[in-house]
Amino acid sequence: MNLQKSSEIPEEFFRVCSLKELPDKTGKRFFVNDTDIAVFKINGEIFALSNTCPHQHSSVIYDGIIEDNYILCPVHGWKFNLANGTLPSGSGGLDSYEVILSGNDVYVKVIKKELKW
Description:
The protein is mainly beta. 0% of the residues lie in helices and 39% in strands.
C-alpha cells in the first residue's frame, strides 16, 4: 500500500484509506510501518486497533463481530472496546491508535517500532 502524507498532518500519522473505502460496521485491515491495524467505521466514527488478538496472536480482529461498542475476535470471542482496545474488565487488550480525518482521508498515528539489539 502507498502511504501518503499531507503537510498539515503530523509526521507520525499515515494515510490508510478514504472514508469511502470503509463500509459502515465492517472492519478493514491495513499495514502501517509493519504494524497490522484493524480500522472500523461505526455510525460515522472511526476506530483503529491492533489487528492481532493477544489470546492466540491471530491477526483477524478486522473480521470480528461488532456488538455495541465492542469488537469480538472471530476466533475465540474475546471482546475489546472499540474506543480504547481494553477488555470489558478495563484491563489489557489491544493497542488503540489515534485517528485524524482530513477531508475524506483517514490517517492513523503509528510510531514505528525500533528494535534495540
